[in-house]
Amino acid sequence: xxxxxxxxxxxxxxxxxxxxxxxxxxxxxxxxxxxxxxxxxxxxxxxxxxxxxxxxxxxxxxxxxxxxxxxxxxxxxxxxxxxxxxxxxxxxxxxxxxxxxxxxxxxxxxxxxxxxxxxxxxxxxxxxxxxxxxxxxxxxxxxxxxxxxxxxxxxxxxxxxxxxxxxxxxxxxxxxxxxxxxxxxxxxxxxxxxxxxxxxxxxxxxxxxxxxxxxxxxxxxxxxxxxxxxxxxxxxxxxxxxxxxxxxxxxxxxxxxxxxxxxxxxxxxxxxxxxxxxxxxxxxxxxxxxxxxxxxxxxxxxxxxxxxxxxxxxxxxxxxxxxxxxxxxxxxxxxxxxxxxxxxxxxxxxxxxxxxxxxxxxxxxxx
Length: 367
Hints:
Blueprint: H1 9-14, E1 44-49, H2 57-67, E2 70-75, H3 79-88, E3 97-102, H4 106-111, E4 115-116, E5 140-152, H5 153-158, H6 167-170, E6 179-182, H7 188-201, H8 206-215, E7 219-221, H9 224-231, H10 236-240, E8 247-251, H11 254-260, E9 271-288, H12 294-304, H13 307-310, E10 320-321, H14 330-335, H15 347-366
Helix pairs in contact: 8-15
């Protein structure tokens, strides 16, 4: 789930890993009111994000109507890259709010102290299970998404082969040379998938599992874009590239994208989700320490947990709302997969082991 903003609908269709930097507000006429460089009087609030942030123009205009602030979106690369930039500029940030850090990298952000606490209005409507910093409120949960293996329905129908549904299935000989995954050292979904295998097989079993996958012909590429749009035969991009891998690590919400941006729209998504291979990501936003427009940043965080913003996310960023009672669009629910029991790991467990796990995974699978 990474930063993606200001891309065309076609690019979004091709780039699902996530969204499009849409409806990025420019500076309003009131921006000249900023005084002395301290942000006082500024009518612009700057949201720093990974490249996948997207919101509709109507919703961002509603934020402006309610608060008087205009949102300026600054995309800053993949999640890990964007976060590293904020760590390096801690205390003198590029903007006011950072969106996109997820539970796989949350400890890195919190340990480096890049956020100022703010208890957003409306948190009482957000389940405690996703409030992973609820005692200090340094970050606010915004959305959830599930990283899962997707499959090309046509390929498996043509082969008269049942698509895999579990981690164990992927290591079976009938699926040899079919799976492409992202590098855990360079990709957020790649890391999440590895964490899913750790959660499922345990610290004593996940390494043997990856040895099995390697022996079964798993292919590793640097990032989601390459895996999904160049290697995966079920995506629109993969079809153009004549891709030959019918299994890919992507998201449970990837199938709706293949429907939404197809012309004409099919009645059924061409891709499916192996729901027994999923790891739950939770994405957060936080007020950056040293923000020039702290008041505007707090107002934006409050707005991001309102139903107005939450109900806008599914067909813009293809993620699930965290606010109880937020409605999902019919296209999203009809074609996306519901993951009842995703794999999860506690943030402190990820924090203590993440770097070693990635190094071990790399030595087993890449080197």
